[in-house]
Amino acid sequence: MNIEQARVVRHTALQAGYRSLELRAPRIAGAVRPGQFVHVQVPRLATSVLRRPFSVFGAQGETISILYKQVGKGTEALALLAPGEEVSAIGPLGNGFPVDPGAALPVLVAGGYGVAPLLFLAQRLPSRGALFVGGASREHILCASQFEALGWRVRVATEDGSLGVRGLVTAALDAWLTEQPAKAALVFYACGPDGMLRAVGERAIMNGQPAWLSLDTHMGCGVGACLACVQKIRGPAGTAVWARVCREGPVFEARQMVWGEQGAGGKA
Asked: What is the spatial distance between Cα 128 and Cα 137, in angstroms, rounded to a whole number?
């Protein structure tokens, strides 16, 4: 874990209020793995002393990038950052995705800006597979062309039918799964809303396949001290235990999850 004064290199506005922020943070960039996150002190936010967690969108050389959407005071303040300015960042934090799927075909499933850690993962995985990405409409489908450029097969679902399959991303996933051979060797990686994560995990468990799920949970300190982001999981002996999403997660295997059991700091 490193604390760095990260300098803004590039700040790019994307569609539908999404933005990409590139930061020069050499120590974090050199250590981060897909699925880990950084805790950023947002400037110009005098009303809050808490940092904000962001999944790492990519890392190259001495820089990292994050993907976010303007949804409140914190991200509105973050959007004001200009190249050359600095922010305090702690990272890399948490446990990320395993990056060796063995002989299994990797299957990535993303909801909205859940594509952020999955694009980073797609760049690091030794083999290419399939990506399923969903959103409310075509404006909320991010990075599809970047996955395709890396050699991934991309399938899209939108709730309004403006791009790809109409419906939830699991509709596109289910259609694809029916085309696969029985007992196909697949490994799932997913990031998005809890409902989507649970659905992906259930499908994987039903077929005896692993699924690595990245939880998006409200956090306080980001380093495991405040216990604001606890999630109940199954421990090594099969008994239910509380885990800190920021410390033991944010990535958990589907068989670990005890859904519907979160602490006071869980999602509202």
From this structure: 26
